[in-house]
Design a protein that fits this description.
Strand order of the largest sheet: 2-3-1-4-5
Radius of gyration: 18 Å
Distance between the termini: 45 Å
Number of strands: 5
Helix content: 25-40%
Shape: globular
């Protein structure tokens, strides 16, 4: 029986490192390219099926090898969770979560690099002035700096649809420091334990032209505090690794 797993997000949280590390394991193979992401399940008008998915990404792969995909926009779409539950019953989902303050800042500079963002960091990251406008051709708004860090809102929908027992939540900060996290991940996916290939290498990093003011950092920290606390009540997290 074929087995599937999806890295569903979050954006700017080390998911490329996670996918590349897993792809080194002989018992799992990822849909290529890992970057840009496949985003197969985002085409809501396509006649998606397990057979079509196999032909596109895993043709000839033995059934014993787990199939993996990393598409970080998935976490934001309840419809994708429904598709995973219906098309790939039993599939495992992994969410990699980074300190939402750091994630938001990284997301801002990523949007600057790609020409979408023209505002200063203090204007764009102001919790009272969020703009979630869409950009044609993109699967998610490039300006959802804070909304994208409200992790529990997204995870609850996934847990309800695919099953909380099939959803693993990792913290970026622990993943790169604690080998136990790698062992737990392999166990969750049903992979034979092997030495962790995880490094502190940074993928898809973007230059930061200037620092964000301490006032904006404080405002972001205060904004995310209740969201982080609610998240920690549902999932095993070490909030000391995040700003508080």
């Amino acid at each position: 029986m074929k087995r599937y797993m999806f890295i569903i997000g979050a954006q700017r949280s080390g998911t490329t490192l996670l996918a590349n590390s897993l792809d080194l394991h002989p018992e799992i193979n990822f849909a290529k390219p890992i970057r840009p992401e496949p985003k197969y399940l985002l085409n809501m008008h396509a006649d998606t099926s397990m057979n079509d998915y196999e032909v596109r990404y895993f043709s000839g792969l033995p059934d014993t090898v787990m199939r993996g995909e990393k598409s970080t926009s998935y976490i934001e779409y309840e419809a994708v969770a429904e598709r995973i539950a219906n098309i790939f019953p039993g599939a495992r989902c992994v969410a990699m979560l980074r300190d939402p303050v750091e994630r938001a800042i990284s997301n801002y500079w990523f949007s600057v690099q790609h020409g979408f963002e023209k505002r200063s960091p203090d204007q764009a990251l102001d919790p009272t002035r969020q703009d979630l406008q869409q950009v044609a051709g993109l699967s998610a708004s490039p300006f959802a700096y804070l909304e994208r860090g409200h992790y529990l809102n997204f995870l609850t929908k996934y847990a309800n649809l695919v099953g909380k027992d099939k959803l693993l939540v990792l913290q970026t900060e622990r993943f790169v420091r604690d080998v136990q996290v790698w062992d737990d991940l392999c166990r969750f996916l049903g992979l034979t334990p092997m030495a962790s290939p995880v490094t502190d290498e940074k993928f898809n990093s973007v230059p930061r032209e200037r620092s964000v003011s301490s006032k904006t950092i404080a405002a972001l920290t205060a904004h995310f505090a209740p969201y982080n606390a609610a998240l920690a009540m549902q999932y095993t997290l070490d909030l000391s690794l995040w700003r508080s």
